[in-house]
Design brief:
7-stranded antiparallel β-sheet, single chain, alpha+beta
């Protein structure tokens, strides 16, 4: 039987809608709660508010941002009033490392138009004491801190009166016994907004705000699902997974991989995000593991680039000789899902020349083949690539040349491409369009076209051209599916150690 993976079959995902908005997420959450049996609603609410409601003649109702709700005569008359902050982190933005900057939002005099523009990252970097690279760093959900900060600033600038996103009301014998206000945020919560809700809507101290994280809340709902097969609840958990705020199953599964290839383009992108989030969870565990600590100590590793899936290994042998990096790579025929690779001679010209000169020694080539043997099994397969790097001060372009399973073929090609520096723009373009590269680079290559358009005809800027190697292990799906974090730590550490050892040995031979 054919099964469709179209996201629009989910009842919370409408055509031409905004499924990623806070309002729609809140609506889906409240709709799901209202679909539960009363005993399930009571069980969930008791957990959600960390208090206990019990007894006879209870009636539970739900509402959203109702402008006609009588705060003074209804809500403030209830016996118990509770404020819940509901978001991914369970925290206000004052607790994050960058957000103390936002305690002085008014002082920065932000412009809404520039915050809403496509160039908001550059705008924030000029207004705040943060580099563009810091603003582009991403969290475990793949969201940049710049996007996060922008949304919080806009939320602050646009806020008006007090109107929580949702309500849960508990009546007993037609008398309002408890009013629960919910404020939902896709990022961290605004403490001033919560304090305003406490004052204006609930008349309670702001210190009484309680916080719930998406993950723990949806895990609780999933446990309710086991007791009663609720279709709406199933759709809600699926919806939360699709928009990136919940992982229904923590392990990477074959289905996660298959969904990337059997879905429409937009659905495929959702499947890739889900796969990457699960993989990020594994990596987060790995870099806190005893396996990584052992390698970190042995090879003097740096941690500063781990969030980019790139390990700084500047202290191994010749400083800056190479990099080790890893990321997802999806290929359906061979079921490849991930790769880990080593780059040699990409950072500095003299490293590149040092390595290239050593290739004249046949014994050096033999050692490289021993360090990076050609492997093709059910775990991973090894390939070798050659790239060009064209750089001019802060400007860099990388051009793919060739891939092969035979390392010697790649090494032979590298020998034919010496490092060339101090070239004018015209000389650089002439080299790239010349005989050396005509088999590998089209003359209308977009990177060449960009170089041609840079600067004036009489520009004195100087360019460098150098080729560099990549030793890559493409990891197959079967090696990482249906395993827990502990097993992933062991398996990934073996591959990482292979690359660390290779880089160390190469450095010692130069």
């Amino acid at each position: 039987m054919r099964k469709s993976f179209d996201r629009h079959l989910n009842i919370f995902w409408s055509y031409n809608g905004r499924p990623y908005s806070e309002d729609n997420l809140t609506r889906a959450f409240i709709t799901t709660l209202s679909s539960l049996e009363k005993f399930q609603q009571i069980e969930f609410i008791n957990w959600f508010i960390e208090e206990k409601i019990e007894g006879e003649n209870l009636e539970i109702s739900f509402d959203l941002q109702n402008p006609y709700l009588n705060i003074e005569k209804e809500v403030k008359k209830s016996k118990k009033r509770i404020m819940i902050g509901f978001n991914p982190s369970g925290e206000c933005w004052g607790n994050e490392k960058y957000y103390n900057i936002l305690n002085n939002i008014e002082g920065y005099q932000f412009e809404k138009g520039k915050l809403n523009s496509d160039n908001y990252i550059n705008y924030l970097s000029k207004k705040l004491p943060l580099e563009i690279s810091e603003l582009k760093e991403t969290d475990e959900l793949g969201k940049s801190y710049g996007e996060k900060i922008k949304d919080i600033i806009l939320s602050y600038l646009n806020r008006g009166g007090s109107r929580p996103d949702a309500w849960i009301f508990v009546h007993r014998n037609n008398i309002l016994e408890m009013a629960i206000a919910i404020e939902t945020k896709l990022w961290d919560l605004d403490p001033e907004q919560l304090a305003n809700h406490c004052k204006e809507c609930l008349d309670i101290p702001k210190e009484e705000v309680k916080y719930k994280r998406f993950k723990e809340t949806f895990d609780k709902l999933k446990k309710l699902e086991i007791k009663e097969n609720n279709v709406i609840l199933n759709h809600f958990l699926d919806y939360m997974e699709k928009i990136g705020y919940y992982m229904n199953i923590d392990m990477i599964t074959a289905k996660d991989f298959d969904n990337i290839f059997i879905s429409k383009e937009e659905d495929s992108e959702i499947a890739k995000r889900i796969f990457n989030r699960k993989l990020d969870k594994y990596f987060k565990s790995y870099f806190k593991s005893k396996e990584y600590e052992k390698l970190k100590k042995e090879y003097s590793l740096e941690d500063k680039y781990l969030n980019k899936r790139w390990i700084s290994i500047e202290k191994i042998g010749v400083e800056g000789l190479g990099n080790i990096y890893f990321d997802t790579y999806f290929e359906n025929n061979e079921k490849i899902s991930l790769f880990i690779g080593t780059e040699i001679g990409v950072a500095k010209g003299w490293h590149n020349q040092l390595f290239s000169n050593k290739l004249k020694d046949e014994s050096f080539k033999e050692e490289l083949n021993k360090l990076y043997p050609q492997i093709r099994n059910n775990k991973y397969e090894t390939k070798f690539e050659l790239f060009l790097r064209i750089n001019q001060i802060s400007y860099s372009r990388f051009i793919y040349l060739k891939e092969d399973e035979n390392l010697n073929k790649i090494l032979d090609l590298k020998e034919q491409i010496p490092f060339e520096g101090n070239l004018s723009k015209a000389q650089c373009v002439e080299k790239l369009k010349g005989k050396t590269f005509e088999k590998y680079i089209n003359k209308d290559n977009p990177h060449i076209q960009k170089i041609e358009k840079r600067g004036s005809e009489n520009s004195k800027a100087k360019y460098n051209i150098m080729s560099y190697l990549r030793f890559i292990d493409y990891i197959k799906l079967d090696y990482i599916i249906n395993i827990d974090e502990k097993e992933f730590n062991i398996r990934f550490s073996k591959l990482l150690e292979k690359h660390l050892n290779g880089l160390k040995k190469i450095s010692s031979m130069l």
